[in-house]
Write a structure and sequence with these properties.
Length: 194
């Protein structure tokens, strides 16, 4: 996504969440297929900015589409679904891969679903790893969560610093979870990294 097509102060995740909220509001209000990109506060009004979000099925390996947002939907024939942001359709055309647009306007599609008889009108719930604003948690948030868990369960959880720093020079923290966590006895260890 180029600089002129982004909404200042919003991440892609926040923009997508806001687009869904605007679409739901438009559907409830009977506004129909209004493009969410043009309705967001502070959104740019260039032609690319009002291009709606699309869903496309693409027949190309994921490694051949760097910079595209895949939805993790993979079809039996190996094709995959991608969320196309403003400008992505032109990039896809330039790459020459076979594709079909499955949803031409995600916001209008969501609005139609929201206004269908029996549809739920509640907003999307906070997803794992998100803050209440819908943005991803930051380094400090993860550290605070680990410290709080260790403080709440001092016999079962402890936070420790790993020997190597991040590329940004920050300390990498780990958490050990075990019964009698401070006991040094050579028990088997399961390591998970995320």
């Amino acid at each position: 996504m180029t600089a002129e097509t982004t909404t200042p102060g919003l991440s892609r995740r926040s923009l997508f969440r806001a687009a869904g909220v605007v679409a739901a509001a438009a559907g409830v209000a009977g506004a129909g297929g209004a493009s969410a990109a043009g309705l967001l506060p502070g959104a740019q009004t260039t032609a690319a900015a009002v291009e709606p979000l699309k869903l496309a099925r693409v027949w190309a390996g994921r490694q051949l589409l760097p910079g595209f947002d895949d939805t993790h939907v993979v079809y039996a024939d190996g094709s995959a679904q991608y969320l196309l942001w403003p400008g992505d359709l032109a990039k896809l055309d330039a790459l020459g891969h076979r594709y079909v647009v499955e949803v031409d306007d995600v916001a209008a599609h969501d609005a139609a679903l929201a206004s269908a008889p029996g549809a739920q009108t509640s907003l999307v719930a906070t997803q794992p790893g998100e803050t209440t604003t819908g943005d991803y948690r930051q380094y400090e948030d993860f550290k605070a969560d680990m410290d709080a868990l260790a403080a709440k369960y001092p016999g079962f959880a402890r936070v420790f610093a790993l020997p190597h720093r991040t590329l940004q020079g920050r300390t990498v923290y780990g958490m050990e979870i075990a019964k009698d966590v401070d006991r040094q006895d050579g028990r088997p260890v399961f390591y998970q990294d995320g």
